[in-house]
Write a structure and sequence with these properties.
The complex is a heterodimer of chains A (about 230) and B (about 325). Chain A has 8 helices and 5 strands; from the N terminus they run ααααααβββββαα. Chain A is an alpha+beta fold and about 230 residues long. The longest helix of chain A has 21 residues. Chain A starts with 8 loop residues before the first helix and ends in an 11-residue tail after the last helix. Chain B is mainly alpha-helical and about 325 residues long. The longest helix of chain B is centred in the C-terminal third of the chain and has 30 residues. Chain B is globular. The chains are: A alpha+beta (about 230), B mainly alpha (about 325). Chains A and B meet through helix 1, helix 2, helix 5, strand 1 and strand 2 of A and helix 3, helix 4, helix 6, helix 7 and helix 10 of B.
């Protein structure tokens, strides 16, 4: 939420006084080191190497900048942006892996044909969802702050989104995997602690649970045909 | 149900006030139960049991334990279920309540919030938002203290002091302009940081997504609000105004995220549950990084792959039920 700007010059000097007050208060209560220590010792340290992966970080930074450049391009029409993103998606994200993942326990029980139908519907659904948000970009930028190697080729890259509508830096995490072709791609993204693909899986699996595992019910919902198909009971 | 803790009524007038505040508490809860500050969202819907409020009610929280083991590093976070997984043994009931809340929102809260949005210009609404946020500082401060978080506590205190004075009773968020940003803290979070387990998922009437632990936190949090204890001429009107404004402000702020979630989820109840618990866990984790080993595998043949568990059925044993 945005702030209400105070502009009177009087405010500035008072704000300076406030800053002094703040310095005093923080000095009195001291331990900024706590936060730093917490950051420096990830819980994962015992179970895996907590090294950073510069290649994964570079991937996130360059793809993010690419995407943001397209979003911020005022000379491009919305239609052109949509086209660009549809072409870009497979470069940025590992769509096949995500598609399998969001089906959860139901993935294994699907025939190839059923999986194919779902994959088509899912891709179209995702495109529609993202395209509806193209207009919400207001000049935010992203900076990569670090990474945690989960296992080789499986990295969580940490970043911050600043500027635009963000009042304070917004933490965004990227789960990136290195594919067989040696290229990095994202499979999940976390904002405010919420992983997108994880949420998607739990949403879809619940829908399938309530539809006795009928993939066609889920596909129909993705196509927006019957939003009411899953009745709460 | 009387979720809004009001000091016991001794006179008929007081009882009447208590009832009024209870009802109003429900309304604000609906809004307060779900709150979002998420500009980049795919239906990120973050529920915050911290209904915005005030508090210097140290009395309400006196006796809060501050074990010396927490002196550095703060309380320990426990619970490492799969992200988004939470036990939901009352799903049938919860879904019923979810439907009820949706109806209430459609019939009452959203229309009111949209009217509010139309009636006031953006700047005025931001001023209202800032005043309400400022009124919530004391409760945040108190929980910062209970969590042995000196720096956040200091920031909250400074924000309250600066915004109440320089910011003209909180209308202007001068502190943020100085780089002292607002953070949230509530008693459910405090409990979580002291190791109290989440417990089963509970979808509360009006208040929305919660857990057993966070429902307790919600009640205590409201008891910490000094506004509840203030007595002055016209206090009921003032309190109702704050509660109503909170409801409208929160609902307006949430509108886009809620619409996104309804549109992009095939089972909005399940999606809300997943989003709520992930966000709540992150909130309790604070600056501590997530254990990346808890994340699901995306490669089917990855070694030691704990198969992604279905939602609502994490491996954690439960008591009772």
């Amino acid at each position: 939420m945005t702030r209400f700007s105070a502009s009177a010059p009087r405010t500035a000097s008072l704000a300076a006084a406030g800053t002094a007050l703040l310095a005093l208060a923080t000095a009195a209560v001291a331990p900024t080191a706590v936060a730093l220590t917490a950051l420096a010792t990830p819980a994962a340290a015992q179970s895996a190497r907590a090294d950073r992966d510069p290649a994964a970080e570079a991937f996130v930074l360059s793809e993010a900048n690419h995407v943001l450049a397209v979003l911020g391009d005022k000379t491009m029409s919305v239609e052109a942006k949509k086209k660009t993103f549809r072409a870009l998606i497979d470069e940025v994200a590992d769509v096949p892996k995500i598609t399998s993942y969001v089906l959860g326990k139901y993935r294994r029980s699907l025939t190839d044909a059923q999986f194919h139908d779902f994959a088509v519907a899912f891709r179209e659904f995702a495109n529609t969802v993202y395209e509806s948000r193209l207009g919400t970009y207001k000049g935010e930028t992203l900076r990569v702050t670090g990474s945690i190697v989960r296992r080789p080729g499986d990295v969580v890259v940490t970043s911050e989104v600043v500027g635009g509508q963000t009042k304070q830096p917004l933490k965004v995490l990227w789960r990136v995997l290195k594919g067989d072709d040696g290229r990095w791609r994202a499979v999940d993204v976390q904002v405010e602690g919420v992983w997108l693909a994880v949420t998607e899986q739990q949403d879809f699996v619940s829908t399938l649970d309530n539809a006795h595992g009928d993939i066609n019910v889920l596909i129909a919902q993705l196509k927006g045909e019957k939003k009411e198909a899953v009745k709460p009971h | 149900m009387r979720p809004h803790p009001v000091p016991s009524a001794t006179r008929p007038g007081r009882r009447h006030r208590a009832a009024l505040l209870s009802v109003a508490g429900l309304v604000i809860g609906l809004a307060g139960a779900a709150r979002a500050d998420v500009p980049v969202s795919i239906g990120v819907f973050l529920a915050d049991t911290a209904v915005t409020d005030t508090a210097l009610a140290a009395a309400a929280a006196s006796g809060g334990a501050e074990p010396s083991t927490l002196a550095h590093g703060g309380p320990v976070v426990t619970g490492t279920d799969a992200p988004g997984g939470i036990h939901d043994p009352y799903e049938g009931w919860n879904r019923g309540v979810y439907g009820f809340n949706k109806g209430l929102d459609r019939a009452l809260l959203r229309p009111a919030a949209m009217g509010y949005r139309r009636a006031l210009p953006r700047e005025a609404r931001e001023g209202v938002h800032n005043v309400l946020a400022n009124l919530g500082s004391p409760v945040i401060f108190l929980n910062d203290v209970l969590q042995v978080q000196p720096q956040p506590a200091g920031e909250t205190a400074v924000r309250f002091a600066v915004n109440t004075t320089v910011g003209v009773l909180g209308v202007f968020d001068v502190a943020s302009q100085m780089g002292v940003y607002r953070h949230r803290a509530d008693f459910g979070q405090t409990l979580g940081r002291y190791g109290v387990a989440t417990g089963p998922y509970v979808y509360l009437p009006v208040f929305g997504p919660s857990s057993v632990r966070d429902t307790v936190g919600l009640v205590v949090n409201m008891a910490m609000d000094p506004l509840n204890y203030a007595r002055f001429d016209g206090d009921v009107a003032a309190k109702l105004s704050v509660i109503g404004a909170n409801a409208l402000d929160t609902r307006v702020g949430l509108d886009r995220d809620l619409k996104d979630l309804d549109r992009s989820a095939t089972d909005p109840y399940a999606a809300t549950r997943s989003v709520w618990i992930q966000n709540r866990r992150a909130f309790i984790r604070g600056d501590r990084p997530e254990d990346v080993q808890d994340l699901p595998d995306f490669t089917p043949d990855a070694p030691a792959s704990p198969a992604p568990s279905p939602p609502a059925q994490p491996p954690r044993p439960r008591t009772g039920g």
